[in-house]
TrEMBL record, chain A:
It comes from the Bacteria. The chain crosses the membrane at residues 15-37, 49-77, 89-114, 134-158, 188-212, 224-249, 256-276. Pfam families: BPD_transp_2. GO terms for biological process: amino acid transport. Keywords: Amino-acid transport, Cell membrane, Membrane, Transmembrane, Transmembrane helix, Transport. This is Branched-chain amino acid transport system permease protein. Belongs to the binding-protein-dependent transport system permease family. LivHM subfamily. It is found in: Cell membrane. InterPro entries: ABC_transp_permease, BCAA_transport_permease.
Automatic annotation (TrEMBL), chain B:
InterPro entries: ABC_transp_permease, LivM-like. This is Branched-chain amino acid transport system permease protein. It comes from Desulfacinum hydrothermale DSM 13146. It is found in: Cell membrane. GO terms for cellular component: plasma membrane. It is a multi-pass membrane protein. It comes from the Bacteria. Keywords: Cell membrane, Membrane, Transmembrane, Transmembrane helix.
Length: 286, 322
């Protein structure tokens, strides 16, 4: 029983980690709290839904489309909108992100109505048993492994490429990075594109596992906050640790207290971590 | 200078008389619309105390609204209190809650404070959804106000108006006292304020608590007006968003900015939803984006600066782009 709960939590936690990875990157590098993050996840989910429904493209294959489409959207938004006022106080960019969130959600609402939809894949309910008492849903396991792959790619981009070096130097000191020849505007746009692309990937995996609707973004943004705060900013390990912690805590909490307590548990953890360890469980990693 | 002050007082007096007399000459629908504007004006002005003057951008102020609403509902429905007592208790409870939460949370700065307050509000919503005394997600009814229909519209309008005037007056008086200067010092540079001997913990906790007091009052009136409340609209994060957008749109850190913001945002939303049934929120989002890019200092600044030209609107971009 306990093993099953922990495994469910870990599998869902992987998805939480992917959701938070993009948010953590954008927050850490540009000091933008992307309130619209959940809306980008929603766009990723709908990309997969339409590709599956209209063209019959398998959700796991559509991952490549949702990541690239969302990357382009993110790149454009940063380059032509957020970059205009990026040096203003963080509060201003936060409100701007609010505006973007309202815009995207309602555009989706107008285009696709408030209907709750589901990507019905044939293999959706398949699972296998491990030993006598642990059942593992195949799709969730696949999604979890993809999270690890995407996380590794992220890690590689940030730590082993020129782009990654520009991103990290810009995060440390914008003016110094500019002085040594980093194209800051482009780096910011690429960073936002990467973060939003990761949100798109999370959206695709979400749409395979859960029902989707244009208004699904709000709670996902809040969950991403919780994960980013638990893990702390500044490393790829943060969101993973935060995601798994939240996933397991939620799974245990809703089993013992009932699923209506899920949000109470998440947000209590959020507030407690902020008060007790404002830099996340990993501590001063930034 | 003195002449100026006298003139401002005169203008304020005129506006106040205008607002007080206006319900007498119009229909119930407009009075109700005015009541809504006043309610958001209270919340945006109360947010201004902690967000605008003290520089702590609270993203969870709706929690005080919800606490106010639920205190009134529970006290009137379950304990048989009269509205006057329930109203006072609602504000006070919200204020005390703000002190208890503020002491740990106000140690955080910037983003972290914003997210922590958001977390407090969401946790409180989830708690209210699960508690028995608040009747969870099914909501809670309040006793009806025993008055004629017209009388009810008047009652809620003037309650909101009185609360707004009390809020603005308190803010005005405090701003001209040492306390107000402490808040602005904290906003400009908290460490410096600390080093010159300002008790910053006391000042910002009091500011948070005052902000909660008036937001709680607004919640109390709202609950009595609705006669039925549920956790989702009472604690929704959208209310927080609305009060912040109004404060910013009107002018943060200016006494009348939030009032002006509440008025313009409500009127704009109303016109939009009249003309575009489905897409009005889409336009609303566009307005928020345009306003924050081109006029981050708010309408109040445009009115007082009187320098309306292209370069005024491009100033923000020129200063802050990369």
């Amino acid at each position: 029983m306990l093993a099953q709960i922990v495994i469910n939590g870990i599998l869902k936690g992987g998805l939480y980690a992917l959701m938070a990875m993009g948010m953590s990157l954008i927050w850490g590098v540009m000091d933008i709290i992307n309130i619209a993050h959940g809306s980008f996840i929603m766009l990723g989910a709908f990309t997969t839904y339409w590709l599956f429904t209209l063209l019959g493209i398998d959700p796991f294959v559509s991952l490549i489309f949702s990541i690239s489409i969302l990357f382009v959207i993110g790149y454009g938004i940063q380059k032509y909108l957020i970059n205009l006022i990026i040096r203003a106080s963080a509060f201003i960019t936060l409100i701007l992100a609010f505006g973007i969130e309202i815009f995207i959600n309602n555009a989706a609402l107008v285009a696709w109505t408030a209907d709750v939809r589901k990507v019905k894949v044939a293999y959706g309910a398949s699972n296998f048993s491990l030993g006598d008492w642990v059942t593992i849903p195949t799709v969730r396991l696949l999604a979890f492994m993809l999270v690890i792959v995407i996380g590794t790619i992220f890690f590689f981009i940030l730590n082993r490429t020129d782009l990654g070096r520009s991103i990290r130097s810009t995060a440390q000191d914008l003016d110094a990075a500019q002085l040594v020849g980093v194209d800051v505007a482009r780096t910011y746009a690429l960073t936002f594109g990467l973060g939003v692309g990761a949100a798109g990937a999370a959206g695709t995996l979400w749409s395979i596992l859960f029902p989707i609707s244009p208004m699904m973004g709000g709670i996902l943004t809040l969950k991403s906050f919780v994960v980013v705060i638990i893990g702390g900013l500044g490393s790829m390990l943060g969101p993973i640790l935060g995601g798994l912690t939240l996933g397991v805590a939620e799974a245990m909490g809703s089993t013992w207290f009932g699923s209506t307590y899920e949000n109470l548990i998440s947000f209590t953890i959020l507030v407690l971590v902020l008060i007790l360890r404002p830099k996340g469980i990993l501590g001063g990693a930034d | 200078m003195k002449h100026n002050a006298l003139r401002s007082f005169f203008i304020c007096g005129l506006i106040l008389i205008g607002m007080a007399l206006f319900p007498l000459f119009t229909n119930n629908f407009i009075i109700r619309f005015g009541t809504d504007i006043l309610m958001f004006a209270i919340m945006a002005s109360a947010w201004n105390i902690i967000g605008g003057y003290t520089g702590y951008a609270s993203f969870g102020n709706v929690v005080f609204f919800g606490i106010g609403a639920y205190t009134t509902a529970v006290l009137m429905e379950k304990a048989g209190f009269g509205f006057a007592l329930a109203y006072a208790s609602s504000g006070l409870l919200a204020a005390v809650f703000a002190i208890l939460v503020g002491l740990p949370v106000l140690r955080l700065r910037g983003h972290y404070f914003a997210i922590a307050t958001l977390g407090v509000a969401e946790a409180m919503k989830a708690l209210v959804q699960n508690l028995e005394i608040t009747e969870g997600n099914s909501g809670i009814y309040l006793p009806m106000l025993d008055m004629s229909v017209r009388g009810q519209y008047y009652f809620f309008f003037y309650m909101m108006l009185a609360t707004l005037v009390a809020c603005l007056l308190t803010t005005y008086i405090l701003l001209n006292a040492k306390f107000g200067y402490s808040l602005i010092a904290i906003r400009e540079d908290e460490d410096a304020a600390n080093s010159v001997g300002i008790n910053t913990t006391y000042a910002k906790t009091m500011a948070f608590s005052l902000s909660a007091l008036f937001t709680g009052f607004a919640g109390s009136i709202y609950a009595y007006q609705q006669a039925f409340i549920k956790p989702e609209p009472a604690f929704t994060v959208h209310t927080t968003v609305k009060m912040i957008v109004m404060a910013v749109f009107g002018g943060m850190g200016k006494l009348f900015g939030p009032l002006l913001g509440a008025f313009s945002i409500e009127v704009i939303s109303e016109i939009l939803s009249d003309h575009f049934l489905v897409a009005h929120a889409l336009f609303f989002g566009t307005i928020v984006i345009l306003a924050i890019v081109f006029t981050p200092k708010g309408i109040m600044d445009i009115i007082t600066e009187r320098k309306l030209n292209v370069s005024y609107f491009l100033e923000n971009i020129r200063k802050h782009r990369v």
